[in-house]
Design goal:
Elements (H helix, E strand, L loop, with lengths): L1 E4 L9 E4 L7 E6 L4 H15 L8 E7 L5 H15 L6 H8 L2 E5 L5 H17 L6 E6 L6 H10 L8 E7 L6 H14 L5 E4 L6 H11 L13 E9 L8 H26 L8 H14 L5 H7 E4 L1 E2 L1 E3 L2 E3 L17 E7 L9 E7 L6 E8 L18 E7 L3 E9 L7 E9 H4 L7 H11 L8 H19 L9 E2 L6 H8 L11
Parallel strand pairs: 3-4, 3-6, 4-5, 6-7, 7-8, 9-15, 11-20
Antiparallel strand pairs: 1-2, 9-16, 10-14, 12-13, 14-15, 16-17, 17-18, 18-19
Helix pairs in contact: 1-2, 1-12, 5-6, 6-13, 8-9, 8-13, 9-13
The protein binds 6-O-phosphono-beta-D-glucopyranose.
Length: 515
Amino acid sequence: MQKIKLQSRFLETCEVPIALPKVSPFVMVIFGGAGDLSARKILPSVYHLYAEENFVKEFSILGVGLPELNDKQYRNFAKSAIGKFKRNRPGKKEIDGFSGHLSYLAGDLGRDELYENLCGKIEKLSKGSGSAEPNILFYLAVPPKLVPGIIRRLQKFNLCKGPLRSKAIIEKPFGRDKESATRLNNLLLEAFDEKQIYRIDHYLGKDTVQNILFFRFGNSIFEPLWNRRYIDHVQITVAEDMGIEHRGVFYEQSGVVRDIVQNHIMQLMALVAMEPPVGFEADLVRDEKVKVFRTIRPMSKQYIDSFFVRGQYGPGKLGNKNVPGYRKEENVSPGSFVPTFFAGKFYIDNWRWADVPFYVRAGKRMRERLSEIYVQFKQPPLKLFGRTCDDLKPNSIVLGLQPEEEIYLGFSVKYPGVGNQPYSVKMEFNYEKNFKIRQHPPYERLLVDCIKGDLTLFARQDGVEAMWEVVDPIVKSWENNSPQDFPNYSAFTWGPRAAGELIERDRRKWRFANG
Ligand code: BG6
């Protein structure tokens, strides 16, 4: 077991064992095995896990898809994907060793013949895995329209329940609204039990996101303050400086609400707002999250018009870099009304959070890449320090997810010298500085959990539907009413002016803003 020494001025020095949990032998079938997601994320992630000392040696990966490849060609495809999307230098011996676990089955995912062949392959591979109870994972790395057909055929060929311990791994988007998500869930639940379904949201695989629960419930000093009595408001920002890259077709159908708000932002909100679960088992944690989604205040059209802001980026410049506006991106309609920016104010109507606004922002081509949760506390009740109190910055806690993975507490001290001049300082914890270790990227972490059978970090059916219930009225209201002012923010800014006005009306400010 690898041991590391913590190097920190603030923490006690101690040795922390860092090891992947042991997983049992498995067979992973990747539908869309020669596709983009497989090349970018799935194959490199399993490769990196394989390259670790403790990872199970009995496993097989079967790529399935339309491209006519044989096993050797698929291994070459995987080698070049790993070479390109590796996070550290892959050793030739390891890559060769890893590719020995791969094979491929070519065929049309929409036809029965493929599944007849698949049954034979799975039987052979699971015998080879050396386990009496095979652990089969079906990773659906395919466009959403192919998912129903695959699920139906897996069911028809008895590949879901019964002697196979199979699991289905599904990527977002889980539907386009509540209705389609329910349809998809019903279909999945005809074929699998809920405990076999792994709906991936990669945000939940980030260490810093998981740390939100540790921070809240693993310490005793913060939680007593974590409520409406002490917290003034919360800001959640998921800002990206990049545009839509080459994903015009996807983005035109999705937009920022379906892409980021319905899943990543809702999950962050749940982690900040949920009650402590009675235990750290999957369903206990997921029960508490669902309660948060269900208590988010329902929104009328009038509320949406007043407290939600949409935006779309125009062209912009950062240093010497000129970028086109959204409407000029590849595969985007020149008159597109798809929003690339979202800002809004949510309320969670429960005992803990009544009347505490949660301001949320997400967008592409913003000033910088920044994901964080900012919790601002109320000011002290008395202006003890005379006029200077007006300048007193409120106490705050920042849970930084990226680029810096950090937590800090902002507070005021007296500036040295005569008078009562306040001065803001911070106490900080930074993952990179405090732990000199490499964290597992989200996909690796989540794949280990799928193989192990731990559902804690995956969305459950009722959670997915409840998240759609929150955002559906916003999407519908916006889609029924075209914006007049798009594009309304320049690339590499903090979004449209209206987003600033939204919070300023409440006499508050975004932590990062234009101007
Ligand atoms: C994905 C979205 O889910 O998350 C992308 O589809 C977005 O549009 C990405 O760029 C952001 O992830 P991260 O981990 O880079 O913040």
